Amino acid sequence: MVWHVDRYGSHVCDPCDRSFNNYSALMQHLNGSSSHNYCDDCDRDFSTNEGLTQHYTNSSSHDYCPSCDEHFDDSDDLDCHMDDCHWWCRDCNKIFENEAALQAHQSQSHADRYCKICERLFASASGLRSVCIGFVAILLSANPSLSNPSFNRHSPAR
Question: Which of 28, 73, 83, 111 is 20 to 30 A (C-alpha) from 126?
Fold first, then answer.
C-alpha cells in the first residue's frame, strides 16, 4: 500500500509524505503526478511508466493490450480485441506484424495442429487430422488424377 489514513483522518501518500483531505484528492494526486506510476487496481506504485506497463502486461489481474495501451473489462473482451485488431497467436500470446508472419509462426511452432492448406490452427492434432482426412477424401473423389501414385504433394514441382 502506498498510502494510509493518519490519526487525524488525512489520506497520506507515503512516498511523497503529502496529506490530502479525502480519498479522491489522494487518488487524483497518485494518478496525475509525474512522480507516480500508480496501479489503482493493485494499489502499487512503480518507479517508471515502463514498470507500470510491464505490470499491466504480465499481471493476470489486468486485461490489457500493450500495443494499443488499452484496458478491457474482462479477458473475453481482450481476446476479441486481439482477434479483431492484431495478428495474434492466442497460444503463445504473441503479436505479429502481419498475417504472413503469424502463419509462419503457427506452421513452425504449432506444426502438429496447423493446416497449411486452409491456413488454420486447430485446437488439437486430432482436430487437424479429422478435418484434413475429410478434406483430402473429398478432394480425391472430385479429382481422381490426384490419387495417381506418381503424385507426391511433398515433392518439389519439376
Answer: 83
Q: Are 128 and 115 in contact (CB under 8 A)?
A: yes
Residues in the chain: 158
* Exposure of 158 in the CB half-sphere (CA atoms within 13 A): 6
57-68 pLDDT, tens digit each: 999 999 999 999
**In this predicted structure, what is the pLDDT of residue 146?**
61
Q: What distance in Å separates the CA atoms of residue 33 and residue 16, rounded to the nearest whole number?
A: 10
- Rounded Cα distance, 101 and 95, in Å: 9
CA 125 from centroid of its chain's CA atoms: 23
Tell me the Cα Rg of the chain: 26
Separation of alpha carbons 26 and 123, rounded Å: 47
Place of cell 475429410: 134
